[in-house]
From TrEMBL:
The name this protein goes by in its record: WYL domain-containing protein
UniProt keyword annotation of Transferase present: no
Gene3D superfamilies: Winged helix-like DNA-binding domain superfamily/Winged helix DNA-binding domain
Keywords: Transcription, Transcription regulation
Ranges where the WCX domain occurs: 223-293
Domain WYL: 130-191
C-alpha cells in the first residue's frame, strides 16, 4: 500500500488525533491533500467526529487544541494491552498488512517491546486489498456485486467477510441459485459493484454465527448431535465451546463430559472429530457415529499398508 492510500476513517482520525496531541495546528486543505479526500470530508471529521470529543477549536481554516487545554498522551494499561494484542495478531496476516498496521500503531503508542505473542496463522490477502474495500463498501450499502469465480461469473448479495481456520471467505447469497454460499477470497477476480440493493437475510447471519468451520451448510436445517468428550480434552470444550449452541448435559466423575449442540452439516463436525480423536466420540445420531467409524477404519487400513 502507498502512504496516501490510507483513506479509511479510523486511520485518518487516529492520525489527526495524534498530531493534535503533539501540539500541531492542522490545515483542512493540507489534510485533504495528504489523505487524498475532499476538504468537506476533513471538515466533517472535525465537526462531527472530533470536536464533540476533544478540546479543539477552529481558527480560520485550521484546527488546534483549545487554549489552556491539553490532551493526555498516555494510554491506559488496558488500551495499550489491546493495541499490543492487535499488533501481534497483524503479524500473522502477512508482511504487507503487518507493515501497514505497525505504522498506524506507532502513531498511537509509545514504542516498546510487546509482551504478547500470538501463533494464530491468518493468510496474507494484501494483494486483494482493492477487492476487500469494494466488498466492504457493498456490504455497508447493501448493494449487489459481480465477479469471476472458478470459471463462472457470479451475482452475489454480500453479507460478511469472514475467516475459517485462518483463510478468508466472502459469505453471501448467490442470486442466480438463491442459495447461501462461501467464496474463497483469493479466487475472486474482476469484481464489480452495482447499484442494485438487497435486503439482508437475518437467518443467514444466525447460521454464520453458529458455524464451526467452513464446512457448515447454511441452506440446511439445524440438527442436534450429542458428543462424549473424554477427560483428556474436556477442559478445552469448557473453555471454548464448539459453537454458541453448545451445552453440557452431563459431567462424569473422571471429568469427561457430554455436550449437545446444533449443526448444519455432518462434514462440519467430522472435521472436528478427526482433529480431536480418539478423545471425541459420537453418541447421537448413530448414522454419524457409523460414518466416523468407516473413516477411521479406512485410515487404519491405509496406515497399516505403510507399515508392512
Amino acid at each position: 500500500m502507498k502512504k496516501h492510500d490510507y483513506d479509511k476513517i479510523l486511520f485518518r482520525l487516529t492520525s489527526i488525533w495524534q498530531r493534535l496531541r503533539e501540539g500541531e495546528i492542522l490545515s483542512v486543505k493540507d489534510l485533504a491533500k495528504e489523505y487524498n479526500v475532499s476538504t468537506k470530508t476533513i471538515q466533517r471529521d472535525f465537526n462531527e467526529r472530533l470536536a464533540s470529543k476533544l478540546p479543539i477549536e477552529k481558527s480560520g481554516h485550521k484546527w488546534k487544541v483549545k487554549e489552556g487545554h491539553s490532551i493526555d498522551k498516555n494510554l491506559s494499561f488496558e488500551e495499550d494491552l489491546v493495541l499490543d494484542i492487535l499488533k501481534e495478531l497483524s503479524l500473522s496476516m502477512g508482511n504487507t498488512f503487518s507493515s501497514s498496521t505497525n505504522k498506524l500503531f506507532s502513531k498511537i503508542q509509545n514504542r516498546h517491546e510487546t509482551p504478547i505473542f500470538s501463533k494464530i496463522e491468518i493468510e496474507d490477502i494484501s494483494n486483494k486489498t482493492e477487492i476487500i474495500k469494494d466488498i466492504q463498501e457493498s456490504i455497508k450499502n447493501k448493494t449487489q456485486i459481480q465477479f469471476q469465480y472458478k470459471n463462472k461469473y457470479r451475482f452475489i448479495e454480500p453479507y460478511k467477510i469472514t475467516t475459517f481456520d485462518g483463510y478468508w471467505y466472502l459469505y453471501g447469497n448467490d442470486i442466480l441459485t438463491n442459495r447461501l454460499k462461501t467464496f474463497y477470497i483469493k479466487d475472486i477476480e474482476s469484481l464489480n459493484s452495482t447499484d442494485k440493493t438487497y435486503k439482508e437475510n437475518p437467518n443467514a447471519i444466525e447460521k454464520l454465527k453458529l458455524a464451526i468451520n467452513v464446512w457448515f451448510e447454511p441452506n440446511e436445517d439445524l440438527f442436534q448431535i450429542r458428543l462424549l468428550v473424554k477427560k483428556e480434552i474436556s477442559k478445552y470444550f469448557v473453555r471454548r465451546p464448539l459453537n454458541s449452541s453448545q451445552i453440557i448435559t452431563k459431567k462424569y466423575n473422571d471429568e469427561s463430559i457430554e455436550i449437545l449442540l446444533d449443526i448444519t452439516s455432518e462434514n462440519e463436525i467430522l472435521f472436528e472429530l478427526k482433529k480431536w480423536q480418539p478423545h471425541l466420540l459420537v453418541i447421537e445420531p448413530k448414522s454419524l457415529a457409523k460414518k466416523i467409524l468407516i473413516i477411521n477404519r479406512e485410515f487404519l487400513d491405509n496406515q497399516l499398508e505403510l507399515l508392512i
